[in-house]
Amino acid sequence: xxxxxxxxxxxxxxxxxxxxxxxxxxxxxxxxxxxxxxxxxxxxxxxxxxxxxxxxxxxxxxxxxxxxxxxxxxxxxx
Length: 78
Prior knowledge:
The protein is mainly beta. It has one domain (2-77). The chain contains one helix and seven strands, in the order ββββββαβ. It has one helix at residues 61-70; strands spanning 2-6, 11-15, 23-28, 31-35, 41-47, 53-54, 75-77. The strands form two sheets. It has a five-stranded antiparallel beta sheet with strand order 1-2-5-4-3, with helices on one face.
């Protein structure tokens, strides 16, 4: 799991896998999951991160929560 934070865009991208991108699904206006051809999640885009992140409905919640907290990004719900 690898995190890229763009403070200017107030966004985070968490890479879950190096598989090839096939499609995406928006969970809401601030959260999007990228998937591979076999339907495995490969990345997560989170917007408006300065106000905190809602982790509900995202894959691998515990690992993601630890990673975000390590980068001092507030987690609202998990």
